Give the backbone structure.
Amino acid sequence: MKVVLQNLTKVFPSRNKKSGEEVVAVNDFTFEIPDGKLIGLLGPSGCGKSTTLYMISGLQKPTGGQIFFGDDDVTELSAENRGVGLVFQNYALYPHLTVKQNILFPLQNLKGADKLSKQEMLERAFEAAKLVQIDNLMERKPSELSGGQQQRVAIARALVKMPKVLLLDEPLSNLDARLRLQTREEIRRIQKETGITTIFVTHDQEEAMSISDMIVVMKLGVVQQIGAPQDVYDDPTNLFVAKFLGTPPINVFEGEVKAEKLYIGAAAVLDVPGVQDQPVYVGIRPEGFIPNPEGPLTCNLSGVDVMGRDVSLVTTHEASLNPVVRSIVDADAAKNANGITVSYSLKPHKVFLFNKETEERVYFEVK
Amino acid sequence: MVESKHKWKAWLYLAPAIVLLLIFTVWPIINTLRIAFLDGYNMLGEVGGETYSFGIKNFTDVLDEYSGFKEALVNTLLLTVLTVPLSTFLALLIAVCLNSIKPLQRFLQTVFFLPYVTNSIAIGMVFEAMFNIIGLSPDAVTAESWGIINNILGLFGADPVNWINLNSSYWANMTVMVIYIVWNALPFKILILLGGLQSINKQYYDAAKVDSTPRARVFTKITVPLLSPMLAYVVITGFIGGFKEYSSIVGIFGDDMKAVGTDHSLNTMVGYIYDALGSNEGRASAAALILFVIIFVVTMINLYVSKKKTHY
């Protein structure tokens, strides 16, 4: 089922009535989520991503705008009547019920035509449990499960009633790094198998990029960019998005465009056809550097991080806004990097220019 | 852990508390045990140099048909069995309601807590006034001035009930006692249960909401189980308090422990112990031990049941 958000807005009244300062958690969010896709809502804490999720679930009421499931306007519908599955950040498994009882719980609420027999309920519960591979843990209490297992139970409980939309709030934040990798693949697999439109919230860009069909990058309640993960990474619309995506993060320099040439410090590092003369921020992805003794951009080498296949050169540059400039280069190419400085030439499609005032992207033609 | 060379310091600091406990708690308990098993013990007698032989006569005296102990036991059991479930249920209901309203919550919390900080004898006297049926004419038809309860009953066209006055019935007396004790027990229970409710993670309710759980089911399947440790605590302390009921009856009926002109005693176990204390310390000690054993056994049963029924 497709989900349409139209001018969705949420304003929280101020806690202090006298000052009257309101907090706009979500500001005019319009987006059509296609049927059967996995969408990642991404942003730093306080950007309104969870609020958006809770508005879709019905637990929070929007201040303005509308929400459609398919063609039905569900804006006024309470959470009870929306038929969504929601996985909470802390899972919210009922601690006094066994895994089986937890998964059965939503089914036992079904009424009227949807009412199931005991046998059907059990079958559905086991089906859901099998999908998340916890069918051998059905008699345990949540406290007897590991974090990853609890997470699966929570997903099974959300899936068992066959929701129109599955919502996950920071589903991986309570898991250790290893389990996180594994579980995010699981979520991808389960989503593919069930084909349920799924929206998940995360502050971890890597997580969002790795499994989403589309990501929505938000900042302070305002949507910054929507697109396929790779597209957003390769073509950020502003400095915030460029900085938010990618590990190691993008390197940002102060720069200036003069006569269609980009200067960082005194060196003209790149031709930027079609850009008017102006001061700019220059974002360069770590993989955008090519070590080249004749290259125009020279940095002071301060260390080498060995990562196996690749090597990360840690350097400094006076025009850099980050404390260090990190490049990721081929291990072989780095063998020569044992001097005091290292020089690079740049890959033009890994270099982004941003207006210094608006921080919006300034495009140039890549030859 | 205290390092061994400083152990004496630890004992020194604990000494005031330990000395007081030994004098005013431990020794009286041991002494009660001793006295209970000395036949016909009397304190003045002992001071005067009398000696008593070891035996169980005090216990047989207590259980004797004419000592009034069985009456007191029945009264106590009845009051406890009637009031504990009732007050727990009401407290749960009020706590849930209080928890679900936002405006006036603080104010109402205070209102419900008032009985807890009010002297129970004073409350008893107020209850006495409320349930009065003073001024009933000899023909028992016209009444001149009633307490507020009978006035309210009168509003609905009901006849005034002789709750506590001359020749009132045992069950009328008991009804007043049950109302009084339940009302008096509510604040503490509400306080505990409200605290329990507020510590339940709101996400369970959000999860239940998303799963379209009906309200009644949320209450029985989520609220009550998650509150069960507090419920168990409230029930156990309620039983213990119920068995020690005494001052409430004095508050309403005076230290005769019965309504004027009646011969059914409303005495309780603790009342019985106080009565015996004046004349016969041996019997009082024996009764105190019996009460202790009863409370102990009931508490054990409570703990056993709650271990099976409470969750996590």
User: Anything to note?
Assistant: Chain B touches chain A through 20 residues (CB under 8 Å). Chain B has 13 helices and no strands.
